[in-house]
Each structure stands twice: as C-alpha cells, then as structure tokens.
Write a structure and sequence with these properties.
Blueprint lengths: L10 H14 L9 H9 L6 H9 L2 H11 L13 H8 L1 H16 L10 H19 L9 H8 L2 H9 L1 H14 L3 H9 L3 H11 L4 H8 L14 H20 L9 H9 L4 H22 L10
Helix pairs in contact: 2-3, 2-6, 3-5, 4-5, 4-6, 6-8, 7-8, 7-14, 7-16, 9-10, 9-12, 10-11, 12-13, 13-14, 14-15
C-alpha cells in the first residue's frame, strides 16, 4: 500500500469520466439475487423488516452470514441468537446489504479475463480488511455498528470493476505496477483518468452506501488530502481504513511482495497503536478471517503461517 497524494483535479470532471466508463462497460460487478432485492427494499420507505427477512431467507449463505455477524464479539454481553429477525435488527441493514453484495459478487465473478488480477486474493484481502476494521472500530466508539466492516469489505471494489470491465487494459496496469514499483493508483489515473478508490466511491454510492462513507473510500489513500476535519469521524474512518488495508495487503501478499509500506506504521502511530497493539489486532483478526473464508466458500490462506 502506498500513500498517494492526488494532484488538484476537477472532481465533477472525474465523476463524469467514471460515469462514462460505467455506461460503456459491457460487464461490471453488480448486485444480483438477494443483494439486488435488498437494495431495492432500502429505497422503499414502506418496506418492512419482515420483507427483508424473507429476502434473506432465500439465500442460505446470506442467512449464515447475518446470524454469525449478529453473534460476533463486538456484541459481547448480548445473548446469542439464531432468530433471523433479531439478527437483522442487531446487525443493521447497512451491514446486511454489504454481506449480500459480497456474496453476490463472489459467486458471479470467479472467471475473469484479467490474468494479473488474483480474484481469490482480492476477496481474501477484502474480508481481512473488513475484520480488521471491525476490530479497530471497538477502539473508537464514535463508529456505528457494522460501519467499519462495510467499509473494509467493499472499499476496494473498484479494482474488481476495472478487472471486470476492462480486463486487457487493467492487466497492463497491474503488470506495470508490479514491475515498476509505481503506486497502482497513479497508473490507473494515467490509463483511465481515475483510480480504483474513485471508482469504488461512485459504485458504492450507486448501491446505496451513505455518501459520507463513499467519501471515506475516496480519500482512504490520503486522509490528510481530503479536507476532512482532524479527529472527525470521516477522517478517523479514512485513517483506520488505510491502516487496515495496508495490514491486509501485507498479510495475503506472496513472499516476493512482502514488506509493508512505511505509511502503515505511520498511520498506526497516528492512531496511537504500538507494535504490541498491531500484533494482537492482526492475530485475533486472522482467526476470524479463517472462519469467514470457510463460511463463504473461499479457499484457506495460501501463505504459510497465514
């Protein structure tokens, strides 16, 4: 992970470029099945929780996700439940939709034409980022339940969108990023006019993620450059996301890519986390990640000792 300071640009022009890219794309990661129906229900002011529960019940994997999330450690002290309706209330609809989106896209995009894009690694990294975010959120009480997990799970979806919509062009970008050691974001801007953080932000907004969180995704690589007020919730979220994403990328990287970026340690220091805190955080999150991978049907970590 690299610190990427964006040069001044016209944000409306950039959004216009992203909109044209989305419209021209023959294929994009998109919600289907239960995920699509849940997004539709979120836009219906008259939708009831019973309707939501009925949609979730049509997908056994999503049902398992929601019940597990409702019984996670962050709800410690609350009686465990197997009742789906209670689980939905406890977890919150934002997190339910995030789970549904992830399951839908994991099922739908296993065969991509972008050979340098490692699909399994992408989702393993996304899940680990989500777990790390969730655990970090316990330290910062201003986070809403599930908010951090949602950000971690979906913050990198722009990379999947590039690999799906422009596999040949993105393959070249990924190869150059590896061989030249140039930050991926800069090469994406050069090739497409925008980077995967910006693309992620627009896609998440389209899928009903609150604008505040979409903005956090946009500025995750440069929290100080986004005009976010110091110690505000968005600033803190962006910093935590940058740290979690960096730790996750390091954990799932093949041996030849090992070596965390210095910005990871700087961000940890800014968040007042020492080496012992980070070691405890990553160890606990790795245990939880293994459970998530098994539940969602992804292979276990391939990295020895991971």
């Amino acid at each position: 992970m690299n610190q990427t300071t964006r040069p001044p640009r016209n944000h409306e022009h950039t959004r216009g470029q992203i909109r044209r890219f989305i419209l021209d794309a023959e294929s994009l990661p998109s919600p289907k099945g239960a995920a699509l129906r849940l997004i539709e229900l979120a836009r219906d002011p008259n939708a009831s929780i019973d309707e939501t529960v009925r949609v979730i019940q049509t997908d056994p994997a999503l049902t398992g996700f929601v019940v597990r999330a409702a019984n996670a450690a962050r709800f410690g002290g609350i009686e465990r439940t197997l009742d789906l309706k209670r689980a939905v209330v406890r977890v919150g609809m934002q997190m339910v939709r995030a789970h549904a989106l992830a399951i839908s896209m994991i099922r739908d995009n296993k065969k991509l034409g972008c050979k340098h894009f490692d699909y399994i690694r992408f989702w393993t990294e996304s899940l680990y980022t989500a777990v790390l975010m969730d655990n970090l959120a316990k330290r910062y009480r201003e986070f809403r339940p599930g908010e951090a997990f949602v950000l971690g799970l979906l913050a990198g979806v722009g990379r999947l969108a590039f690999a799906t919509a422009a596999p040949d062009d993105y393959d070249v970008v990924l190869a150059r990023a590896t061989s030249r050691g140039v930050p991926l974001e800069l090469l994406e801007q050069e090739a497409f006019g925008f980077d995967h953080h910006e693309l992620s932000s627009v896609l998440l907004a389209d899928w009903g993620v609150p604008t505040e969180l979409a903005d956090v995704v946009y500025w995750q690589c440069d929290p100080e450059g986004g005009g976010l007020l110091p110690d505000s919730r968005p600033y803190r979220l962006a910093g935590v996301l940058q740290l979690a994403a960096g730790l996750s990328a390091e954990a799932v990287a093949p041996p030849e890519e090992e070596g965390a970026s210095g910005i990871v340690y700087l961000r940890a220091a800014l968040l007042e986390l020492d080496d012992e805190d980070i070691a405890e955080l990553t160890a606990d999150a790795m245990v939880e990640l293994r459970d998530w991978l098994q539940m969602i049907g992804l292979p276990p970590l391939r990295k020895p000792g991971g």
